[in-house]
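User: Show me a protein chain along with its predicted structure.
Assistant: Here is one chain, sequence first, then structure tokens.
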Amino acid sequence: MRDIKFRAWQSRSKNMTTPYLWVNNENLVGQAMIGAPNAVMQFTGLQDKNGADIYEGDIVRCYPDDIGFSYLKVVEWDSERCELGITTNGRSGLILNKSTSNTVYVVGNIHENPELIK
């Protein structure tokens, strides 16, 4: 079973935080947030090659075995194909799953590092 985790971006404070979540109707985990977040990103249930959690909105460097060079992509949910993928400018690319997540490294996210995808 995969962990259900979120993180939230607040553009006013330029801060990425883990919002409070109830666990087992008893425990509260996360951090307090002042004001509503601008974006909430869900954990994909996958980790990159270094063991870092991969969230929606993460920018990953892909190292596919068959092409010999790397490229940057954004982790997004593709609602048409009903799958998690990594895209560039809205174009679907590699499907992100357990077998492909070991070929990517998280290098940032679209909120804290937008310059990486321009």
